[in-house]
Write a structure and sequence with these properties.
single chain; 205 residues; mainly alpha; Arc Repressor Mutant, subunit A; Tetracycline Repressor, domain 2; 2 domains; 0% strand
Length: 205
Amino acid sequence: MRKGEKTRERLMDIAESSVLAKGFSATSIDEIIAEAEITKSGFFYHFKDKNELAQALLERYVERENVLLDDLFKKAADLHDDPLHIFLIGLKLFADLMADMPKGHPGCLVATYCYHERLYDAKVIELNRQAVLNWRNRFSKAFQDICDRYPPRDDVSVEALADMVSNTVEGAIVMSKALKEPKVMVDQILLLRSYIKLLFQPVPG
C-alpha cells in the first residue's frame, strides 16, 4: 500500500472510530487531522468534504461486512451441503466471532447513518438503504433455499425472516453497548439460531 493510500485508510480508521463513538455531527475534521497528524489541506486531498468521507466510510464498511459474511457462510457450506445446516453453522460461526471480541462489537455504521440521515446527501442515504437491502437479499435467498427443502412450521415470508436477522444483530449491538455486556450479542445470535432451527424442524409424523 502506497503512502497516500495508507494516509487515506488512517483518516478513515480515525473517523470511523469517532463516528461510532459519538456520531457523525460530533466528529470534526479538525480532530481527525489532529490525530492523524496531517494538515487540513492533506485531508481535503483525500476527501472534498465530510459527506464524501461519509460515503467512503460506508462503502468500506459494507465491503468488509460482505467479505466477512461471505467467508463465514462459505466455511459453513464447506462443512455441510444442507441449506438449513449451512445457515445454522454460519450463525454459530458468527456468534463465535462476536465472542472473540472482548470489548464487544464496535457498532454499525449503517444504523448510525439511519439515525442522522439529515446530515448526508441523497447519494449516501441511498447507499445506506442499499446496504440494508443487501442483508435482506442475502438472507432471503438463504431462507428460500431452506424453505424449498423444509416447509416452515409457521406462516412467515423469507423477506421477513431475512429482516429478522438484521433486526436481531442491530438490536443486539445496541443492547450490548448500552448494557456494556458484550455477551448479549452472542446470546441473541444463538437465540435467533434456535428459533430458525425450531421453525424449520420437521413436524413429527
